[in-house]
Amino acid sequence: MTDKIRILVVDDHQMLRHGLAGLLSSFEDLEMIGECKSGQEAIRLASTLQPDVILMDLMMPDMSGVEATRRILEINPRTRIIALTSSDEKAVVSAALQAGMTGYLLKNVSDTFLAQAIRSVYHGKRTLSPEITEALIESALDTSPVVHPLSEREREVLRLMVRGQNNNEIAEILAISHSTVKFHVSGILSKMGVKNRVEAVKLAIEKGW
After folding, report:
1. Helix (H) or strand (E) holding 9
2. Contact (Cβ atoms closer than 8 angstroms) between residue 209 and residue 188
3. Interatomic CA distance for residues 42 and 124, integer angstroms
4. Contact call for residues 33 and 8 (beta carbons, < 8 A)
5. Residues 6+ apart with CB under 8 A from 8
6. Does the predicted model carry a pTM greater than 0.85?
7. Quick check: 146 pLDDT over 50?
8. Does residue 46 register a pLDDT over 60?
9. Domains of the chain (ranges plus CATH)?
């Protein structure tokens, strides 16, 4: 078979990358053309390798998969990107889809489901793990009023941003990793529709958040 779907794997865990390499090689129509462990590397490789599909982790040391996705799609909007993560939080799913990801899969998906998801997004069809689909349906059916656009954790991070705390200080105060803080900050900026921390803080003060 000559027309294989060319795939880039982005995850900061080497064992998972190697596992995916073996998995993808078992399907004749799929080809892993590269791998990397950070968002910055993903942006560089996406530009040079021009993959058809990227399997993107969301929590990485240097930048979130959501931010990496935004930057990659600015360079090549035809690239299909699938979040491959362990998080099923609605806020995280929303941020990923808003950034332009075509698929959202949990890392517990079966080999065959992952392969079919890659084929589906390659052909422009959005694909989600069953658990994610169910969560989004429940969210759509929820008739309770939306009180705040941010999750509780994002509100905690935003309050500390307003107080002038940097990411390292926020991570220490909330007892979470630096990469988790960066992920939440990225989500906050996306949901608030602002470009940077200064604008986020200004808007939060104006709205009394």
Report:
1. strand 5-10
2. no
3. 21
4. yes
5. 32, 33, 34, 35, 36, 42, 45, 46, 49, 51, 53, 54, 55
6. no
7. no
8. yes
9. 5-140 (3.40.50.2300), 152-207 (1.10.10.10)
Token digits for 39? 């968002």
Q: Which residue did the predictor score with more confidence, 137 or 131?
A: 131
* Nearest Cα residue to 161 out of 182, 139, 133: 182
The pLDDT of residue 1 is above 50: no
Query: Which ranges of the chain would DSSP assign to H, the alpha helix?
Result: 14-25, 39-49, 65-75, 90-99, 111-122, 130-141, 152-162, 167-174, 178-192, 197-207
The predicted pLDDT at position 192 comes to: 85
Q: What tokens appear for 41 in the block? A: 């590397």
pLDDT of residue 44: 96
Q: Is the pLDDT of residue 148 over 60?
A: no
Q: How many CB atoms lie within 10 A of CB 189?
A: 18
pLDDT at position 149: 73
| 3-class secondary-structure state, position 91 | helix
Check: CB of residue 113 under 8 Å from CB of residue 119.
no
Distance CA(61)–CA(181), nearest Å, equals: 10
Which long-range CB contacts under 8 A does 170-175 form with residues at least 24 apart?
A: none
Q: What is the pLDDT of residue 93?
A: 85
Structure tokens given for 110: 């079966």
Question: How many residues in total does the chain contain?
Answer: 209
32-42, pLDDT tens digit by residue? Answer: 999 999 999 99
